[in-house]
């Protein structure tokens, strides 16, 4: 697990409140795929510092359960929202052993799946905990963006990438899995989830004011991919 989400969890929490990639691009694009959440039971997988939890509480979700592999992130969420959410440490690669079958109206999983090698069992667990008619919304690295980091040059072969990000204003080592669009979609489908929508995000015009070069880049290049997947 990257120190970005453990040692630097507090700095990360501060950065994503109002930064370009998370606050102005990723979150609005993910939220655009949600139906009305009022009265819903929601599971937030890889909750991070709780920016989505805050939105879900403000939009009257009936129950918000947050989980993250990083205990530091779980502590931040617990301190921020006290008894308004239930938060606990869980590695999603090991399943969702604390969640009941057919219990969630909505599962969200923003910017987490690229940290996991094998997505098939993850989507199978999400399918198990979703109610019939419930849905998953997730975002992850766009396969056509990550191919830029490839050392093998083989788009179709899953690849472990080591990189350095400046999310918190200093370089931090990160690693993630690059995979093809086919692998991603097959993992969703093999779990029995039906892809209802795929988007590549909407670039908020306010990015032009604060970061014109990033606005230009995001307007012309794929960066994240967003999917809405239903349990029928
Ligand atoms: C980029 S952050 C996104 C946080 C939050 N979803 C958001 O969009 O604000 C990725 C989060 O996924 C968590 N994470 C990474 N691997 C995970 C795993 N295997 N199981 C659960 N959480 C994981 C990290 O600890 C981190 O908090």
Automatic annotation (TrEMBL):
GO terms for biological process: methylation. InterPro entries: Diverse_substrate_MTase (IPR051052), Methyltransf_11 (IPR013216), SAM-dependent_MTases_sf (IPR029063). It comes from the Bacteria. Signal peptide: none annotated. Pfam families: Methyltransf_11. SUPFAM superfamilies: S-adenosyl-L-methionine-dependent methyltransferases. Residues 43-138 form the Methyltransferase type domain. This is SAM-dependent methyltransferase. The lineage of its organism: Bacteria, Pseudomonadati, Pseudomonadota, Gammaproteobacteria, Vibrionales.
